Amino acid sequence: METNIFSAYLQFQQLPDEVKSRNKIKLGAKIPRYDLTRIAGYYKPIESLKTNKGLVYVYLTETRGIINSPDQRRADRFLMAKESLNFSSVYLLDCSTPTNGNLIGYGNPNRSKTFGKDKKPNPFLCCKDDGFLFLISEDWQSIETLIIPNGYNTILGNAKALADGVYNEALATMRAAAKTFFQY
Fold it and tell me: How many CB atoms lie within 10 A of CB 148?
C-alpha cells in the first residue's frame, strides 16, 4: 500500500472568458493567468497569496529574455504570484510524449528571505526545502501542483517517478480529496 507523500494538491486553471467577464478579470492578457480552483491538504504560503476577495492566482511566464542564465540552467517557465513573488520556476521533464495527457514539470519555492524592490518577507521561506511537481495539460489550460515536504533535493527523481506512474494512486487520492478553493 502506497503512502501519500504529498502534503497538498493545488489545481490552477485558466478560467473561461465568461467566468472572467462575470468576475471583472481582464480578458486577452499576454501572459496567461491561472486561478487556484481546487485544493487538497494545506500549504501555509497560500494564505499570504490571497487577494482581498480571497482568491489566489499566478501567471505563467516564459523565462527566455527575462532570466539571465545559460540555457542548460534556466527553467522553461516560472509562476509569478501577486506583487511579483516568484512562486516557482518550472523545469519541464525531458519526455518525448506527455504522460497521461500531461507534461511533467518540477520546481521549488523561492528560497530568498525577501522579495521585490521593497524587500518584503518571503512567505515561502518557511517551506524553502519543499519540492513541487507540476502536471500541465497539453493545451496549457491547467497546472496541477503537488507539494512534497522537504522534497527540494529529490524533486527531479520524484518528477521521473511521477512520469513513470509511481505516484498514480497518491495523485488519484489527492484529486479525489480536492475541494473548490474559490466560488467564481
Answer: 21
